[in-house]
Design goal:
PDZ_sf; flat; chaperone; Pdz3 Domain; alpha+beta; proteasome
């Protein structure tokens, strides 16, 4: 069964003004810089979602989609994977261009004598290293986890807030209906799950989990956990 690509492409990434449109005015320059940062974050979020689509099929950008005889593989949605790969290639090119614009915009800020501390914190990090992955809004909470279940073995804990479940995120979970679909389609296969978890100081930290749904764990269902929509 194919998975709808439309859900993963919303919201679309709008084209913001280039840094070349900024003037000497600090307000206008800051607005332009913020728009470039927002565009970069939107691109990274969509790339992450599309990467999860490939993960749900257990393929990457180079995995063969044909059999040894040259026929399309019947165990995966070849059309969706090809569409996803093409979109990823386009977005990576867009991301490269946006990063160049961001670098130029930051340079202009320094050339204009703007103190470093006035730049957005994420912009400062981008000048020395790649920005941290965008944290998407959670769409489900883990209400309970059965000991020794697949969810427990993956490291899932009560109170975790799910931001990604395979290709499913806050834009397309359909009241967790898509989560059930991913579980059924990936029995005995790894599903990449991202959760937010509060530490002792109540700061949310992102955790990447590898969940393998299976029936032979000794309990009910494939996961051994209870999720509730947010």
């Amino acid at each position: 069964m194919g998975l709808r690509m439309d859900d993963l492409h919303a919201p679309t990434v709008a084209s913001g003004p280039t840094s070349g449109g900024a003037t000497a005015s600090g307000t206008i320059a800051k607005q332009s810089l913020q728009e470039i940062i927002a565009q970069k974050e939107n691109l990274e979020a969509e790339l992450s979602a599309l990467g999860s689509v490939l993960d749900s099929h257990q393929v990457d950008m180079n995995t063969s989609l044909t059999t040894a005889d040259g026929f399309p593989r019947s165990d995966i949605d070849v059309a969706q994977i090809r569409t996803t790969r093409a979109r990823i290639i386009r977005l990576k090119n867009d991301h490269k261009a946006v990063m160049k614009r961001l670098e130029d915009a930051v340079y202009e800020q320094f050339a204009a004598g703007k103190p470093t501390e006035q730049l957005p914190a994420q912009t400062q990090r981008t000048t020395v290293a790649a920005a941290a992955p965008v944290v998407e809004p959670p769409f489900a909470r883990v209400n309970a986890v059965v000991p020794s279940s697949p969810a427990d073995q993956a490291g899932m804990k009560p109170g975790d807030k799910v931001t990604k479940f395979g290709y499913v995120n806050w834009t397309n979970h359909e009241r967790l209906g898509k989560v059930a679909q991913v579980v059924q389609q990936n029995e005995n296969h790894t599903i990449l799950v991202k959760v937010l978890r509060d530490d002792e100081e109540m700061n949310s930290q992102t955790h990447d989990l590898r969940l393998i749904p299976r029936r032979d764990w000794g309990g009910r269902g494939l996961l051994g956990c209870h999720l509730v929509p947010l």
